[in-house]
């Protein structure tokens, strides 16, 4: 079949299928996000137009925003579907590097197709070409190498035959999942080749469920049987394996208290008797208290990032760590007893070895008691008397009015701590907190992607004024495309959570809150977020009190659904009221600041390496 490189790539995308948790099939690549330029409009753009009725193409308004939307789509489909993003060369391509970092850090699949300069070099230097003086083979797309699980530059059409199986492998493999970058020189996109028909035969990708090695299972079972105070930590790998219910059954059979990481949040029903709450700095004192006393921690599907481990001070140095993970890279961290395999298969095999073993009943009952104390604390924050609502109160309203199949999300600043620590879920997979890369702006772009993918419920994203100002163009992208969600914008006059870190460690207020920033005006301008959102095609509501937040959010939900466009709720929030989990986080503190004493006191408690 004689096709251009671009035509062959598009036909291959259409042939790829993905198996869902229930055994059904969906397109592996459900759509393409595109901003066309001279580097992709005639090659890949023409090929996509030929299949416009089979493969939807969504027009974005920033390349970074499109790629973040694709990341949000992958998260909402539990890595069973992959967003494709194409850009022109130069700035369009480089705009996607940040999103590649988000996908890489969060282990989420993403296919990036940036245009590239001419392989022939005949017209060099071309528009938007950066010319490295030291390397004639390099282009700006080489910047993707550090944040790609797989990178290739297609310099001959027939290279697709060797490359595309590797693309599918990375995007669908539980251990290697992450961003793939295929740099596409614009002359090669238009070159033709006689491709074999077999390349375009339909393929259904079924993520492998690798079973752990028997010896590691035996060692893990022996470690757990010897435990007096075991703790089960559930991460994102449990979600992507579809093993949430299985993990809870494992915990119940063996009487092990359960906590969640950021990526694993909402896997456990809040009222479950074994649920100790979320773990770490943005988690709960309940989980952190149990973590400090646990003698064995069984971590499933998590890389144990510093916010989860309180910079490795949340655990006792004497505890034993057992890590079940699809990726050996993550399983071996901190000297853990590594059990490499799929979460579902590993829990089943380990449960068979443990047989009827159960933890001490007194330890088992600790979870509910500690969580009840944390719940009382959250209740007190939500019911506090204040003219201006706090983050905790806004989250409480969204939690109260949300439905079981809804999807809530945030990314950076202070809201992750409020949402992770304060949300009370029903046990369905209903939360996306991008705190692997903590990318400001993901809250709106990712919500666009999640709204495309999420079936049944309504997507609500919570964000601060700082994040809104970074990537608000995707409000128009979603409004134009007809993808509804609700955005709750908490306006507190600047980068409040960083100001909190700055001043909490003894630094002077500087360049975070607007009054502490340099300006040439006595009265600097303020953003009217509601009017701005309306100008982007959204419905908008303002709220000044907690009662108004409740009314505005309820109306926004209704309007978003009926008009199929985003609805934005703008609320002034307290700039210095936070949900505290009582954990420490390591940052670099100069010796002359007061926070240095806390750092010096905490460092000896930091677990450096655990015995096997």
UniProtKB/TrEMBL annotation:
* InterPro entries, alphabetized: DHS-like_NAD/FAD-binding_dom, Myo_inos_IolD, THDP-binding, Thiamin_PyroP_enz_cen_dom, Thiamin_PyroP_enz_TPP-bd_dom, TPP_enz, TPP_enzyme_TPP-bd
Q: Which UniProt keywords are given for this protein, alphabetically ordered?
A: Thiamine pyrophosphate
Which Pfam family, any one, appears in the UniProt record? TPP_enzyme_M
Q: Which residues form the Thiamine pyrophosphate enzyme central domain?
A: 218-350
Q: Which residues form the Thiamine pyrophosphate enzyme TPP-binding domain?
A: 434-571
Q: Where is the Thiamine pyrophosphate enzyme N-terminal TPP-binding domain?
A: 39-127
Coiled coil regions, renumbered to chain: none
Domain of life per record: Bacteria
Per the record, the similarity remark reads: Belongs to the TPP enzyme family.
Looking up PANTHER family in the UniProt record yields: 3D-(3,5_4)-TRIHYDROXYCYCLOHEXANE-1,2-DIONE HYDROLASE, THIAMINE PYROPHOSPHATE ENZYMES
Name of the featured protein: 3D-(3,5/4)-trihydroxycyclohexane-1,2-dione acylhydrolase (Decyclizing)
- By which gene is this protein encoded? iolD
């Amino acid at each position: 079949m004689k096709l251009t490189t671009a035509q062959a790539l598009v036909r291959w995308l259409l042939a790829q299928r993905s198996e869902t948790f229930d055994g059904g099939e969906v397109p592996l690549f459900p759509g393409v996000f595109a901003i066309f330029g001279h580097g992709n409009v005639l090659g890949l753009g023409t090929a996509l137009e030929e299949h416009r009725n089979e493969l939807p193409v969504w027009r974005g308004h920033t390349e970074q925003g499109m790629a973040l939307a694709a990341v949000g789509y992958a998260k909402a489909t539990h890595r069973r579907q992959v967003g494709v993003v194409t850009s022109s060369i130069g700035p369009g391509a480089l705009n996607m590097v940040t999103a590649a970092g988000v996908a890489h850090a969060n282990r989420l699949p993403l296919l990036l197709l940036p245009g590239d300069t001419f392989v022939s070099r005949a017209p060099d230097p071309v528009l938007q070409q950066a010319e490295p003086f030291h390397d004639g083979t390099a282009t700006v797309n080489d910047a993707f190498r550090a944040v790609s699980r797989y990178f290739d530059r297609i310099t001959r059409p027939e290279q697709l035959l060797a490359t595309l199986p590797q693309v599918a492998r990375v995007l669908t493999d539980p251990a290697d999942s992450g961003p793939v970058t295929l740099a596409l020189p614009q002359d090669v996109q238009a070159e033709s080749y006689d491709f074999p028909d077999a390349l375009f035969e339909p393929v259904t990708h079924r993520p492998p469920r690798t079973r752990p090695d028997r010896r590691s299972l035996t060692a893990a079972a022996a470690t757990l049987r010897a435990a007096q105070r075991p703790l089960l930590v559930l991460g994102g790998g449990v979600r992507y394996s579809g093993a949430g219910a299985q993990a809870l059954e494992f915990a119940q059979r063996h009487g092990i208290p359960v906590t969640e990481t950021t990526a694993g949040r909402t896997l456990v029903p809040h009222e479950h008797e074994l649920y100790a709450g979320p773990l770490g700095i943005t988690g709960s004192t309940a989980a952190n208290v149990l973590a400090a006393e646990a003698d064995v921690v069984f971590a499933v599907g998590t890389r144990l990032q510093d916010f989860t481990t309180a910079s490795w001070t949340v655990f006792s140095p004497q505890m034993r760590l057992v890590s079940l993970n699809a990726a050996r890279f993550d399983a071996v961290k901190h000297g853990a007893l590594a059990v490499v395999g799929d979460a579902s298969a590993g829990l089943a095999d380990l449960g068979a070895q443990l047989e009827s073993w159960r933890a001490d009943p007194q330890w088992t009952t600790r979870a509910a008691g500690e969580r009840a104390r944390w719940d009382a604390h959250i209740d007190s924050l939500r019911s506090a008397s204040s003219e201006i609502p706090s983050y905790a109160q806004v989250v409480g309203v969204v939690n109260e009015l949300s439905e079981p199949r809804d999807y809530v999300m945030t990314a950076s600043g202070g809201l992750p701590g409020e949402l992770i620590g304060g949300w009370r879920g029903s046990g369905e997979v209903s939360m996306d907190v991008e705190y692997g890369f903590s990318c400001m702006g993901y809250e709106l772009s990712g919500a666009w992607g999640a709204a495309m993918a999420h079936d049944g419920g309504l997507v609500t994203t919570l964000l601060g004024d700082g994040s809104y100002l970074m990537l608000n163009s995707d409000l128009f992208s979603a409004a134009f495309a007809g993808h509804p969600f609700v955005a709750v914008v908490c306006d507190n006059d600047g980068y409040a959570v960083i100001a909190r870190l700055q001043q909490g460690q003894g630094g002077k207020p500087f360049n975070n809150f607007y009054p502490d920033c340099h300006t040439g005006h006595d009265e600097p301008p303020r953003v009217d977020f509601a009017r701005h959102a309306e100008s982007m095609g959204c419905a908008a509501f303002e709220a000044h009190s907690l009662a108004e937040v409740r009314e505005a959010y309820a109306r926004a939900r209704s309007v978003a659904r009926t008009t199929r466009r985003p609805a934005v709720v703008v609320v002034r929030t307290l700039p210095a009221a936070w949900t505290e989990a009582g954990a420490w986080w390591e940052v670099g503190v100069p010796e002359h600041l007061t926070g240095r004493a806390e750092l010096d006191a905490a460092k000896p408690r930091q677990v450096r390496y655990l015995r096997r």
